[in-house]
Amino acid sequence: MDNPQHPLKSVFNVGLLLHNLNKEAERKTGLSIVQWSILKYLIEMPATSAQELSEAVRLHPSTLTQSLKRLSRKDLIIVTEDPRDLRKKIISLTRNGKKILDYSDQQMEQIAKPLTEIRNELFIVENFLISLKSSK
Amino acid sequence: MKKLFNSDNLKILESLSFTKTLYAFDFDGTLSKIVTEPGKATISMTTNLLLEELSTHAPVAVISGRSIADLKKHLKFVPKHVIGNHGLEGLGTRPDVLETAHKICATWQTTIKKHLPAEHLKSGVEIEDKKFSLAIHYRKSIAKKNAKLAILKIASNLDPRPRMILGKCVVNLLPPGAPHKGVALVELMLQNGIKSAFYIGDDDTDEDVFSLPNARIFTVRVGNKRTSQAQYYIQKQSEINKVFKTILHFFR
């Protein structure tokens, strides 16, 4: 589109495109982008707490809980009691999770490839939206 | 503490193998059995081979209260990272700091020999000079409780006042400001750019590692001690080879 349009229309269109991108990721890898992000964090940071993971992937704790349930059901992660504080949980990648991650990494790179051209723009938009959220 | 050999806990242990993790071991009571004569501690051939095999897959360290020179006499395979004297040796401590520690220990030794009642020295209390720290063993004493009290009384009046780390029938005296095993482990991780670690030890001297607040340090105590801050435990030292084989299985 050449004509400027209402910013909210662009936001809607971008949201739709991201939704489709996510669907493509799930179709090709069995993982949504969020799930993949969680596994990517866990492979580097074993025995992570839910709070740390929530902050790292920038998901609200209740949203994270749903994602963790799905991943746990697929045996891609293990969620178990923190031996130091049984009220808390620690989360790690399982062997199955690592296998899926190793397989999906390449697919995700292919999906993300077209976006590398606008990496800087995406970063600007991301930071802008974060600052918008924190200014409220 | 939870039992290490439980399927969920082993999955957490396994996840350490997916990233660069330092596998660190205490020596006495962990890699080798506790013995009455410290000079007679040995590491079994199987344990030695397993330690060597693990070092081909991941960074490995032995962290001990013994001096490095002493440790090397007892390790058939010497891993890349050997930390002695509870962290004073093996991490690039400045020579002047080591020199000061050495002088302090010499002064302490003289004072202890002067003030420790003769009956204790005759009945099994031994002072081990580790050059940069002292270890006063009372395992062979016929009156262990009295020996320990006498040692602690003298140690608390030493100048400068030592950092005391109590072990199994041993009182370790370290110069003030000296690191402990927890500091040593973290320093080793920082120096090598490693974010997670596995540590196993058997003694109160290892509690400095067990009490580290870092969630990415997986800690195991040899023996189930209720008050330990370790996350997991194995029943006894003889299970150490099972620990090695379990970890090695993750890499195959």
Brief characterization of the structure:
By secondary structure, chain A is α+β, with helices and mostly antiparallel strands. Chain A has one domain (19-134): Winged helix-like DNA-binding domain superfamily/Winged helix DNA-binding domain (Arc Repressor Mutant, subunit A), CATH 1.10.10. Chain A is built from six helices and three strands.
Principal-axes geometry of chain B comes out as globular
Q: How much helix is in the residues of chain B?
A: 25-40%
Contiguous runs where pLDDT drops below 50 for at least 5 residues of chain B: none
Binned strand content of chain B: 15-25%
Helix content of chain A: 55-70%
Structural class of the helices, strands and pairings of chain B? alpha/beta
- Gyration radius of chain B (Cα, Å) is 18 Å
CATH topology of the largest domain in chain B: Rossmann fold
What is the rounded distance between the termini of chain B?
A: 28 Å
Q: Can you name the CATH architecture of the largest domain in chain B?
A: 3-Layer(aba) Sandwich
Q: Please give the number of β-strands of chain A.
A: 3
| Structure annotation, total helices of chain B | 9
The assigned structural class of chain A equals alpha+beta
- Evaluate the radius of gyration of chain A: 17 Å
Order of helices and strands of chain A: HHEHHEEHH
Biggest sheet architecture of chain A: 3 strands, antiparallel
The main sheet of chain B orders its strands as: 1-11-10-9-2-3-4
* Quaternary structure: heterodimer
Strand content of chain A: 5-15%
Q: Enumerate how many helices of chain A there are, as a single number.
A: 6
How are the SSEs placed, and which strands pair?
The complex is a heterodimer of chains A (136) and B (252).
Chain A: H1 7-29, H2 33-44, E1 48-49, H3 50-57, H4 61-73, E2 77-82, E3 85-93, H5 95-112, H6 119-134
Antiparallel strand pairs in A: 1-3, 2-3
Chain B: E1 2-3, H1 7-16, E2 21-25, H2 45-55, E3 60-63, H3 68-74, E4 81-83, H4 95-115, H5 118-122, E5 126-129, E6 134-137, H6 144-155, E7 163-167, E8 170-174, H7 181-191, E9 196-201, H8 207-210, E10 217-222, E11 232-234, H9 240-251
Parallel strand pairs in B: 1-11, 2-3, 2-9, 3-4, 9-10, 10-11
Antiparallel strand pairs in B: 5-6, 6-8, 7-8
